[in-house]
Specification:
By secondary structure, this protein is an all-alpha fold. 83% of the residues lie in helices and 0% in strands.
Length: 52
């Protein structure tokens, strides 16, 4: 059970890091400043964390 919980946290943290790295590209495509995309990271992490 502990292994399952730890592995799910690794997946959530890894995906959140990927979204953080991709924020400049997302902001460029949507013509939105990076500071305006903070909700993207929050929403993505919240939804992904709730599935695990």
């Amino acid at each position: 059970m502990l292994t399952l919980c730890c592995s799910s946290m690794v997946v959530v943290v890894m995906d959140a890091s990927i979204v953080n790295v991709a924020l400049p590209a997302i902001g460029g495509d949507l013509r939105t400043p990076v500071s305006g995309l903070q909700w993207t990271v929050d929403a993505y992490t919240l939804v992904l964390g709730s599935f695990w």
